[in-house]
């Protein structure tokens, strides 16, 4: 089986962890500070705050902006549930805007339609490794005095008009093992606002600037030096990882071009897409996405469906009264599937992936 994702952990990461273990400082320490500084430099931001997951990054970022009960936060339903769950954690309510049918990112026009007097923030998700339309989103935010919190959990190193994601509003990142870089588990908040950075640091550590003096309600969201040591090594490799993903995606697109019933990923010319996922779309009602995925899996090609059920259709959200009708998101959920594009695959793997995908569409169409 060619897996849909595979973390690349080498001797450098193993040695970095061993060094930390031998040092005796394995919780949050100097390695975390070094990782924060390196990640801030990478994104072109003034501050970075390390936490223990991407979900924690979203939660702490929202709290740092004083988002809470009575507030509304506009986001996309076509993403992992952590994005909107983090809004619920604060007592605020997510409001779902529909997506652009080509890029699958949140549609700025739909955002405008969802703004109410309660709206306080927008969370665009840079889905699959491609930036959302940040020019329009930032204009909307400025016009309506809204906060922007970027969910860049799938987009480490991605750019919009040459600028790194995570540097437009308050950025949030995940370092889960399947991401473009990993720390095992972990997350990061990026910002140019020193007050937001300070609040995020307090929130991650029980509301404290000074040990045993607690100025606000906080949590235990700290990253360990073990995770940060892995992250420092992975960050140095990130550009090479992303170049491999981009090259693999280009190779697949050349091989899969002009197949009847199949739509290739659309790259916004303003964006530097880093292909966290290489996501295709079945464009014919005579072919079932699930049949294609089953065919591929049976032939040894790992696939992913991101995401088969939009958040507003999830049982938990329906119980809370969400009854949105978001046609583009709902249709995409029945048609998208992803193929392996990670740096661990080689040309022979890519040839096999493309050949089996061609066979699948030829036989099933």
Structural account:
α2 packs parallel to α8 (225-256) and α8 crosses α12. The chain has twelve helices and 15 strands. The protein folds into two domains: 11-234, Aspartate Aminotransferase, domain 2; 238-364, Aspartate Aminotransferase, domain 1. The model has no long low-confidence stretch (mean pLDDT 97). The protein has 365 residues and is of the alpha/beta class. The strands form four sheets. It has a seven-stranded mixed sheet with strand order 1-9-8-5-4-2-3, sandwiched between helices. The protein has a three-stranded antiparallel sheet with strand order 7-6-13, with no helix packed on it. Strands 12-14-15 form a three-stranded antiparallel sheet.
Draw up the topology in text.
Layout: H1 11-23, H2 30-43, E1 47-51, H3 54-64, E2 72-75, H4 82-89, E3 93-96, H5 108-114, E4 119-123, H6 134-144, E5 147-151, E6 159-160, E7 163-164, E8 170-174, E9 187-191, H7 194-203, E10 208-210, E11 213-214, H8 225-256, E12 262-263, E13 271-272, E14 278-282, H9 289-298, H10 315-319, H11 327-335, E15 336-339, H12 347-364
Parallel strand pairs: 2-3, 2-4, 4-5, 5-8
Antiparallel strand pairs: 1-9, 6-7, 6-13, 8-9, 10-11, 12-14, 14-15
Helix pairs in contact: 1-8, 2-8, 3-4, 3-7, 8-12, 9-12
């Amino acid at each position: 089986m060619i897996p849909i994702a595979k973390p690349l952990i080498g001797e450098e990461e193993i040695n970095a962890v061993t060094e930390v273990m031998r040092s005796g400082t394995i919780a949050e320490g100097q390695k975390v500070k070094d990782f924060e500084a390196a990640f801030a430099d990478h994104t072109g931001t003034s501050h970075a705050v390390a936490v223990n997951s991407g979900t924690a990054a979203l939660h702490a970022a929202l709290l740092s902006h004083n988002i809470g009960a009575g507030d509304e936060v506009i986001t996309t339903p076509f993403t992992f549930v952590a994005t909107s769950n983090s809004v619920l954690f604060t007592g605020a309510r997510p409001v779902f805007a529909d997506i652009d049918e080509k890029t699958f990112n949140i549609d700025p026009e739909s955002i405008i339609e969802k703004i109410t007097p309660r709206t306080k923030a927008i969370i665009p998700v840079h889905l699959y490794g491609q930036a959302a339309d940040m020019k329009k989103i930032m204009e909307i935010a400025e016009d309506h005095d809204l906060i922007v919190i970027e969910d860049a959990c799938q987009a480490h190193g991605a750019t919009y008009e040459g600028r790194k994601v995570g540097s437009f509003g308050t950025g949030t990142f995940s370092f889960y093992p399947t991401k473009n870089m990993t720390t095992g588990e972990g997350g990061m908040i990026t910002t140019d606002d020193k007050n937001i950075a300070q609040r995020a640091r307090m929130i991650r550590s029980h509301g404290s600037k000074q040990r045993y003096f607690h100025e606000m309600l906080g949590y235990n969201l700290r990253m360990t030096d073990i995770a940060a040591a892995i992250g420092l090594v992975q960050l140095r490799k990130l550009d090479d990882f992303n170049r491999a993903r981009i090259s693999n995606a280009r190779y697949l697109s050349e091989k899969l071009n002009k197949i009847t019933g199949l739509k290739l990923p659309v790259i916004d010319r303003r964006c530097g897409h880093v292909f966290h996922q290489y996501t295709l779309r079945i464009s014919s009602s005579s072919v079932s996405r699930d049949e294609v995925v089953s065919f591929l899996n049976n032939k040894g090609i790992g696939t992913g469906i991101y995401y088969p059920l939009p958040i507003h259709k999830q049982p938990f959200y329906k119980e809370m009264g969400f009854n949105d009708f978001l046609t583009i998101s709902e249709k995409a959920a029945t048609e998208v599937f992803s193929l392996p594009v990670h740096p661990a695959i080689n040309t022979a793997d890519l040839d096999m992936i493309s050949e089996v995908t061609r066979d699948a569409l030829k036989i099933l169409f």
